[in-house]
Specification:
This protein is α/β, with parallel strands linked by helices. The chain has helices at 2-9, 41-51, 111-119, 126-145, 170-177, 202-220, 240-250, 336-356, 371-379; strands spanning 78-81, 106-109, 151-158, 160-161, 164-165, 181-182, 189-192, 231-237, 255-259, 279-285, 293-298, 317-323, 362-368, 388-395, 398-405. It is 28% helix and 20% strand. The longest helix is centred in the last third of the chain and has 21 residues, at 336-356.
């Protein structure tokens, strides 16, 4: 009786009374119910590490621990639930994850992207956000796994295309070079020859050549940060003769990958699957003079004999390197293997011409090719083994002589 009175008054039991283990305790469910929004510090650290502190919204990639304008350090990130904390929230009626505050249900976002995905949940369903999250975190993981041998330095060659200079977005560059990682957080080496090409004449192309040679020397002499350069990734958009000049100056001093802008999606990444193209090389006309030779590269489009300048007359033997089994077209170059096979076919073509026309000093080259192929045309030239190349450019459906590469003056 006294014990019951003490319980009601809240006084402790008399000495010697053994407390019931269940006294004062609520019954516990075997399922942990999270009833607060607070995300554990361990989960926060994991998410920041998995994302490298960058916004996971596809295409944003903003670094969230420095103010974008003032560059002052700080935490400007937000941890967003994919499936909302409450069922009434964005995507809250989707199947509930085991841990609503677990890392698998969280994305690191900048405030504008967080607001966007939560204001428009129908546009950003669970599956899409999980794709964003998984792609971003997989990319960060791959970069983290990369060793020094996968470090690359970027070279962008920019010229006038249709009277305009074209910029290449940094995210497109990073996507293209994976699994390599970009050595410099900015734009790498930019060789801008647009100012040289305001008038496309012989003097303009020579000015572009001088600019390219000067800037490439800076690239080779220790790279961006003074360390030895082991690998370059090249993104080039310029007139075809300039691209060939650039390839000749680039040479094979450093391992290089060249990338192609694909018209369909504007991506610079090589496709990972598909059937590689094959090439065909043949003589399509025999000329009367042993040392007069023209080489047509009919890849992006067909070059018709009748469209050649009058100087390429009956004295000239004409050879053609083109696609086997399909018409020349602008979309043929899709795989890295396509460029490798071109290099091989082009080397064989130069060797055959040199062999069939012993003592030849020059070849008149008519290229209808995509940018990476033009760069490769210059890269594959051997200074003492191959003749000079007199490069023609198709300007308003008329071929015009522009510049000669592989001359002794270039050595």
């Amino acid at each position: 009786m006294e014990l019951e009175k003490r319980k009601k008054r809240g006084t402790p039991p008399v000495k010697g009374h053994k407390k019931d283990p269940s006294e004062g305790k609520e019954a516990r469910s075997p399922v942990v119910q999270v009833n607060h929004r607070k995300i554990g510090s361990g989960i926060q650290v994991q998410l920041v590490a998995a994302t490298a502190g960058r916004c996971e919204f596809r295409g944003c990639n903003e670094f969230l621990f420095v103010h974008p304008l003032t560059k002052t350090g700080g935490n400007f990130s937000e941890m967003a639930h994919i499936v909302a904390f409450k069922e009434a929230g964005p995507r809250g009626h989707a199947p509930r994850p085991e841990e609503i505050n677990g890392i698998d249900n969280l994305m690191l976002l900048c405030p504008p992207c967080h607001k966007l995905v939560d204001d428009q949940p129908s546009e950003f369903p669970v599956k899409l956000l999980l794709d964003y999250k998984n792609d971003h975190e997989r990319r960060i993981h791959d970069v983290g796994e990369a060793g020094p041998e996968l470090r690359t330095e970027i070279i962008q060659l920019k010229g006038l295309i249709g009277g305009q200079s074209v910029d290449i977005p940094a995210p497109h560059v990073r996507e293209a070079v994976r699994p390599r990682y970009v050595a410099d957080k900015h734009n790498g080496h930019i060789i801008d020859v647009a100012a040289c090409l305001t008038k496309e004449n012989e003097h303009a192309f020579e000015a572009a050549r001088r600019k390219i040679r000067h800037d490439l020397k800076l690239c080779f002499d220790g790279g961006i940060d003074g360390r030895d350069v082991r690998h370059f990734s090249v993104f080039a958009l310029a007139p075809i003769p300039v691209l060939i000049v650039f390839g000749r100056a680039l040479g094979d001093k450093v391992a290089t990958d060249i990338y192609q802008r694909h018209r369909g999606n504007q991506s610079w990444a090589w496709k990972e699957s598909g059937t590689p193209v094959t090439y065909k090389f043949e003589k399509i006309r025999s000329g009367s003079q042993q040392h007069s030779v023209a080489l047509l590269l009919s890849l992006s489009g067909r070059i018709v004999l009748d469209t050649l300048p009058a100087e390429i007359d009956a004295r000239f033997s004409v050879y053609e390197l083109t696609l086997a089994g399909e018409e020349p077209n602008r979309e043929f170059l899709q795989l890295r293997e396509d460029l490798i096979r071109f290099r091989q076919s082009y080397q064989q073509a130069l060797s055959q011409v040199t062999r069939d026309h012993g003592g030849i000093r020059e070849i008149h080259l008519f290229p209808a090719v995509p940018a990476p192929v033009a760069v490769a045309c210059g890269q594959e030239l051997l200074p003492k083994a191959h003749p000079d190349l007199i490069i023609y450019d198709n300007v308003k459906s008329v071929f015009q002589k522009t510049i000669t590469v592989n001359t002794s003056e270039e050595l």
